[in-house]
Specification:
This protein has 3 helices and 7 strands, in the order ββαβββββαα.
Length: about 190
């Protein structure tokens, strides 16, 4: 299902399917997020989900990498800015960003470099089924006018108003499509 290949100075995981809905529904399944977490652990060099694989909000323990409490540690946070925190081995900073952290410290005569994979809590991405009515209620505005009397009459009035505006939206969408087609014609044939 997944292949690894060296690419440039790093490596790439290749999946055996195209990332299109016609090809697979894996991103919609509960197994997708743990799969991505395993991929991040793999790139971080963590073979087991120990303390070197954290969930965002947990604290680092540099003793897991072999650092002594007196060791001076430079912890590089993930991101474009590459912010570096200067800490000691007894500090326990909180992993506040998702990604791969790098900790460098002196261990005897060798400069050690350890990686930590920090992921989102996998329970945050569990898929839950919702009925269509509850989803519509999230996006629907107040369908009743404050002055209208509650009841079926107010709802019927709103439905009639929506039906009267529907052709206007259809004309607008058709006009937008015509403009896009004209733009493509002008770009392709008269450029």
């Amino acid at each position: 299902m997944v292949m690894e290949r060296p690419y440039g100075k790093g490596s790439v995981l290749m999946f055996t399917f195209a990332p299109r809905p016609e090809s697979t529904d894996l991103p919609k399944r509960k197994a997708f997020v743990p799969l991505i977490h395993q991929a991040v652990r793999h790139f971080a060099g963590v073979s087991a989900a120990l303390r070197r694989c954290l969930v965002a909000g947990e604290q680092f323990d540099f003793a897991d990498a072999g650092a002594t409490p007196e060791a001076s540690i430079a912890l590089e946070k993930p991101g474009a800015s590459k912010e570096v925190l200067n800490l000691t081995g007894k500090d326990h900073p909180v992993a506040d960003a998702v990604g791969i952290y790098t900790a460098a410290f002196q261990k005897g005569t060798v400069r050690e470099r350890s990686l930590w994979a920090v992921n989102l809590d996998p329970r945050e991405s569990e898929l839950n089924s919702e009925d269509l009515a509850s989803i519509r209620n999230i996006f629907a505005s107040n369908t009743m006018d404050a002055r209208a009397v509650p009841g079926a009459g107010g709802q019927r009035q709103w439905d009639e108003e929506q039906k009267s505006q529907a052709p206007d939206w259809r004309y607008f969408l058709v006009a937008a499509m015509v403009c896009l087609l004209l733009e493509a014609l002008v770009r392709d044939y008269w450029a």
